[in-house]
């Protein structure tokens, strides 16, 4: 995914971005899909669907994932989403896969 202008940043882009961030943070934490799925209380298939952007992640799930990975939930949310919902932007984390 290349550069996305803010006005063109739609729900699909947000879903993909959150998924990439979940995968990046999970792998940085050296957690497996199974470990994260057990910590969050969902199946491996659900975690995989979130990470690949096939399924939207609820804010409740973002909070659970962040808690399981011991990170701030804001690290999983794209800047554009935070701006749309008038949340303070505290982190600059890429939506690119690592």
- What percentage of amino acids are in beta strands? under 5%
The CA-CA distance between the termini, in Å, is: 13 Å
Number of helices: 5
Quaternary organisation? single chain
Q: Quickly give the structural class.
A: mainly alpha
| Strand and helix order | HHHHH
Portion in helices = 40-55%
> What composes the largest sheet?
none
Can you walk me through this structure?
By secondary structure, this protein is mainly alpha-helical. The chain is built from five helices and no strands. The chain has helices at 11-28, 33-40, 44-51, 59-69, 79-84. Helix 2 (33-40) crosses helix 3. It is globular and about 30 Å long. Mean pLDDT is 80; it is low at 1-7.
What tags apply to this protein structure?
98 residues, 0% strand, 52% helix, mainly alpha, disordered N terminus, 5 helices
